[in-house]
Amino acid sequence: EVSRGVAVGDLDNDGDSDLVVTNNGGKVRVLLNQVGSKSRWLGVRLTLPGSGRDALGARVSLAREGLPTLHRRVRTDGSYVSSHDPRVLFGLGDSEPKSLEVIWPDGSAEVFGADRLPVGQYVTLVQGSGTAK
Asked: pTM for the complete prediction?
């Protein structure tokens, strides 16, 4: 097959990234990842107040007890004529989330405590609902 684009996202909301591959003159292929869902994870969707739009460009840092901080960026770009899932995923292994820091597209920063970070599911965080940093 001659593939032209790939979109990455968690199609079945189980905490791992799945793929949708488009092919030139061929069928679209859906590749469901069944491995990652067996591990602990946290999914985050960041939105802007009022509009509910995704906070594209926001930078996210997840602090964990005794382990390095994990960093992600809210984005949908990456492949030709394709758009990725704007939600960010963090694989946790055996760790617990301590806090999540968000630097929003306008440059403001907020922190969200562990009580707002449920393991094994997606959470939507809206700009202005955390603690200003």
From this structure: 0.91
